[in-house]
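Quick start: read one record
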Amino acid sequence: MTPATADAPATARLFLALWPDAMTRQAIAAAAARWHWPPGVRPYAPDDWHVTLHFLGAVPLARLPALQAGLAVPFTPFRWTLEGPACWPHGLAVLASARAAPPLAALHRRLAHALRALALPVETWPLRPHVTLARRADGAQCPAGGSPIVWPVREYVLARSTGEPAPRYTIVARYPATGP
């Protein structure tokens, strides 16, 4: 949380995300163990692995109750697949999908609509679903191939950046699927 000053209210850096269940987290850990990491890499802890759907930025804490209610959107549980490892620019090591599966893209759109209704900004770049495994990973050896990871999506979360190295994030609210 950002401390309040005389002029500014206390804020929290918030985002909407998919958070892996225990089985998905284990599959991600197995995939991460296949990488060869360079010195100085900054790996993410398994408890911090997620897929960001929308970044809200610094939001006044006074808005949190209204946000929690306004960000609930209906969706049916679905599965999508993390296709494999990739080394992205700026030293990011990720597990990624080439594109968002249709139900994931639909959830992303519904959440964008909810954000606009709450007068919050919505990013304009397309969704690139991925889990960041590490930063400062220039020189990491990305494993060839590997098994895709099927992620059962039964909820999404509103999360907060802590500003600390561990845990990096905490879950503020959970939004379970509304369908069967």
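The beta strands are 11-18, 42-43, 51-60, 78-82, 84-88, 92-96, 130-135, 149-153, 155-161, 169-176.
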